[in-house]
Design brief:
Layout: H1 6-16, H2 19-39, H3 43-52, H4 61-70, H5 81-97, H6 102-109, H7 120-131, H8 140-149, H9 151-168, H10 175-187
Length: about 190
């Protein structure tokens, strides 16, 4: 299908994810397929990307940093596993499991930050990660309904929340997140 050994990929995921993270990944897969059906994206790609988007999420900082170096990723990711896991996950899918589909790799790579000019699959993965059924925050139903009605507006609201939350916590906002926010605002003609 999209990788050279799906059985090995499944074992890798089960060996490297906590049970709660595995459950989350299955929820993202389910939501990504639902959104793909609504918006006319490739449901098989959405399922694959949703299921495997977080394969590196549970790596500790040392393991994450080793993988950043191993795959020659941007060294600004060192010491930041929360941000690095998506880039490392995409590298593992490509180099260890033979995933060559650029759209899938980008959907995994940018599911945490988003980016300007996201493809439909990237946007679906970004939103599905936030609105899957295992999430527990109070506005979940609102975001799920919005995702089913207007993917762009849902993306914008998630980006706004993310930027506000990071600002409140005095944490750095990734440049891709800011570019995605400005792009989607422009796309929706919101000033």
């Amino acid at each position: 299908m999209f990788c050279n050994d799906i059985g090995a990929l499944e074992r890798f995921m089960k060996d490297n994810l906590k049970e709660s993270r595995y459950r989350h990944s299955l929820g993202v897969e389910k939501m990504a397929v639902k959104l793909a059906d609504i918006y006319g994206a490739d449901a098989d790609k959405a399922a694959f990307t949703g299921r495997y988007h977080d394969i590196a999420k549970c790596f500790d900082e040392k393991t994450m940093d080793e993988n950043i170096k191993r795959y020659s990723l941007d060294e600004s990711l060192l010491g930041n596993p929360a941000l690095a896991h998506s880039k490392v996950g995409a590298a593992i899918l490509e180099h260890e499991f033979g995933v060559t589909d650029e759209d899938i790799l980008n959907a995994v790579k940018y599911h945490t930050t988003a980016r300007k000019d996201m493809s439909l699959l990237e946007q679906i993965t970004y939103v599905a990660d936030v609105v899957e059924e295992n999430r527990t925050y109070p506005d979940l139903k609102y975001y799920q309904d919005l995702a089913a009605k207007d993917l762009d507006l849902c993306t914008l609201e998630i980006l706004e929340y993310t930027i506000s939350d990071l600002t409140d916590k005095y944490r750095q906002i990734d440049k891709d997140t800011l570019r995605a926010y400005n792009y989607i605002k422009h796309k929706l003609s919101i000033t």
